[in-house]
Structures
1.
Amino acid sequence: MFKRIWQYIYTSLLRSWLKWLLRKTTGTCELQRICSGYKPGATMTTKAEYSLQSSKNKVRYPS
């Protein structure tokens, strides 16, 4: 129960504020921080995929 509440609060409020704060302090977007902070491989790929899936700006490709 607590895990679901925390997950809701994190995904709806805290994550966007944290991303904004990191962008202002580092001057880089989330994908740039992921690509520069991890060695190429599974960890970097899963972090990038999570970032893109969690993004509020969904890209829709034409059919």
2.
Amino acid sequence: MGGLDLSEIDTGDLVREVQRRLECLSKPEKRLILIGPPGSGKGTQSPMIKNENCLCHLATGDMLRAAVAAKTPLGLEAKKAMEAGALVSDEIVVGLIEDNMKRPECRTGFVLDGFPRTVVQAQKLDEMLQHKGQTIDRVLNFAVRDQLLVDRITGRWVHPASGRSYHEKFAPPKVAGVDDVTGEPLVKRKDDNAETLKSRLSAFHAQTAPVIAYYKEKVVHIKADKAQGEVAGQVRRALA
């Protein structure tokens, strides 16, 4: 029978992984939603939230790509919609979330990122969870002033091959315009400009303000304009 050769894995790593899994058995179940505009730092905090609470990370874009690549029934439906230039329906996205919840790493719950964006989506998600006797426990709202987001995003430079990102003010490269590791030129993403961002932000506020109101009993407002460590501290307190 084929399988993983454990003799190739460092014993220390193996022991740590076993300890982590044992600790996960005693963790309470949690189902979380992260809400925040582009550049609010959700992506920076979600690995910590996932690891410390033994949850799986469900990002709608990743789930869609995986389902399309695997040619699952929902993936084929989503592909048909995308090829027709239509939006993927809320039912398909909720179906993907339900499918992914069956993965072993989702046993104690999930961190949902990028969904729901509207109240209708929130209602459909709640209906699916109710059928399983489950509910959303917390909604973390990463709140940042629009102007700070504009500063954060318009100052961003990216190394396309690796995805490494820099910021001309907050995290500049050692040499302006050049990647620290390879010495290759950095680029600006075409969407990283003030006009595009302002229209994305106004759309975000219009859509998600009602979602925050819908979940108001479960919402914890995170002051996401603070330093990374301080934001992580707020998140830990919100989930304690």
